[in-house]
Specification:
Blueprint: H1 8-18, H2 20-30, E1 36-40, H3 47-55, E2 60-61, E3 70-74, H4 83-86, E4 90-93, H5 99-104, E5 111-114, H6 121-129, E6 135-139, H7 146-155, E7 161-164, E8 178-184, H8 205-224, E9 226-236, H9 245-255, E10 259-262, E11 270-271, E12 289-291, E13 300-307
Parallel strand pairs: 5-6, 5-8, 6-7, 8-9
Antiparallel strand pairs: 1-3, 1-4, 2-3, 9-13, 10-13, 11-12, 12-13
Helix pairs in contact: 1-2
């Protein structure tokens, strides 16, 4: 069933965009399982303290993991049953979840909006970077996803965050100017490892069109509420250029000289303009990053943009 989620149409377009060898690696890696990545809640513990506490209970970890995290190699029992998890000293997540908050890097005095917040892992990571101060708006459209968001924020001891149950496209109606925006946008999710992908039916090309329209609308509305010199990080767990490089390229065209695409200081992935798209990208697209599933993470695209003028 998992293999059927990726239809022949997507396999064919990946060959056109990325080449046959890269596509073969993508398909092979999408079938693999991700290790469990453990991130310490730096508001209340350190990586070393957390590791020592868990190892004393029989948990074992790989020697090295990026982003100050731990890679779980052996668990004598489910780690979510530990007091460390229940008291909010750790989160379990994909490595890609760590990238947007770290790229945004808000200060402890910032006003920040997370425009697609549930289940709240990235929201909590933002709050950690902000040292649990400043103001953080966690916006979630789906009412049924609010309990998970509340649960994670409460468990992690986050208290600088306001939860808003509304469509991110309505954000300007709040009349709040913010310093930073995180948009881990709704997307087709074609970069997700298949075993953790909850979608059972194959994606169709119309999914890409539909999601890219939503992404464009949220980006344009969010841009209105961003302060001058403020930044927005846009990301998707999609391998489709329309949800990555093309989306940002079109955004640059609409907003012209208002936008500066900033470099992303991570040593993973490739510059975004390496896809074989037929149109010419704005030169700033080279500052975005495209991560493939064979690079140790889910397939991922990320762009960091600064508002330089109205």
């Amino acid at each position: 069933m998992a293999e059927q989620i990726i239809s022949w149409e997507f396999k064919e377009r990946w060959v056109n965009f990325y080449g046959k060898k890269v596509t073969e690696r993508i398909l092979r890696e999408l079938k693999q399982s991700d290790p469990r990545i453990i991130a310490p809640n730096t508001l209340y513990t350190t990586r070393r303290q957390l590791q020592e506490s868990l190892e004393s209970q029989g948990f074992r970890f790989a020697p090295e993991t990026p982003f100050n995290c731990l890679t779980l190699e052996f668990e004598p029992f489910n780690i979510v049953a530990t007091s460390e998890y229940l008291s909010g000293l750790l989160t379990i997540q994909a490595l890609t979840s760590l990238i947007p908050p770290k790229c945004l890097n808000p200060s402890s005095e910032s006003v920040v909006a997370d425009l697609a917040a549930s289940p709240g892992i990235k929201t909590c990571l933002l709050a950690e970077v902000m040292e649990n101060t400043g103001t953080l708006f966690a916006i979630e459209k789906a009412k049924k996803r609010i309990p998970a968001l509340k649960s994670n924020i409460t468990r992690m001891g986050i208290y600088n965050t306001f939860i808003l149950n509304c469509d991110a496209r309505s954000f300007p109606g709040l009349n709040v100017k913010v310093d930073h925006i995180m948009l881990d946008a709704p997307c087709t999710g074609t970069g997700l490892k298949l075993k953790k992908n909850k979608r059972l039916e194959p994606r169709i090309l119309n999914d890409v069109t539909r999601q890219s329209v939503i992404q464009r609308e949220i980006l344009d509305e969010a841009w209105k509420q961003l302060k001058i010199d403020g930044t927005i990080v846009y990301s998707t767990c999609s391998l489709e250029p329309e949800e990555g490089e093309v989306q940002i390229n079109n955004f640059l065209a609409r907003h012209e000289k208002q936008v500066q695409v900033l470099p992303i200081n991570i040593n993973i992935g490739n510059p975004g303009n390496l896809t074989r798209w037929t149109k010419v990208y704005d030169s700033q697209i080279s500052n975005t990053r495209r991560i493939f599933p064979d690079q140790g993470m889910d397939g991922f695209f990320i762009a960091l943009m600064k508002k330089v003028r109205e």
